[in-house]
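Structure (tokenized):
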């Protein structure tokens, strides 16, 4: 094996150092990209959590609205039944006092 001349050895050493510097730069750039991707992923997770929380809040609001509407319907139905019962009892009571034209008592 032939020993390399001094200038060729220096040139190879210089090329190796340049190559190492480029690798270091690429490594640093990769670390920056990795950090940026991590930040974007964290932001996306936060956005998804916020969307899920908003969806749960909207569903809870819809459920409360539905339950409120059901309560109003039940209350109105109860009032209607009470009114119908009162009117029915009143009709029965008034019909009991009516005399038939032929003298028969109704009720």
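Design, position by position:
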């Amino acid at each position: 094996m032939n020993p390399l001349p001094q200038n060729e050895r220096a040139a190879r050493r210089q090329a190796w150092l340049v190559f190492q510097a480029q690798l270091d730069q690429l490594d640093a750039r990769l670390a920056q990209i990795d950090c940026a991707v991590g930040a974007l992923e964290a932001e996306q997770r936060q956005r998804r959590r916020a969307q899920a929380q908003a969806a749960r809040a909207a569903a809870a609001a819809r459920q409360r609205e539905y339950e409120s509407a059901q309560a109003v319907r039940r209350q109105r139905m109860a009032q209607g039944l009470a009114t119908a019962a009162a009117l029915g009892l009143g009709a029965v009571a008034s019909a009991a006092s009516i005399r038939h034209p032929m003298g028969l008592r109704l009720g």
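Reviewer-requested clarification: The helical segments are 6-96. The chain has a mean pLDDT of 89.
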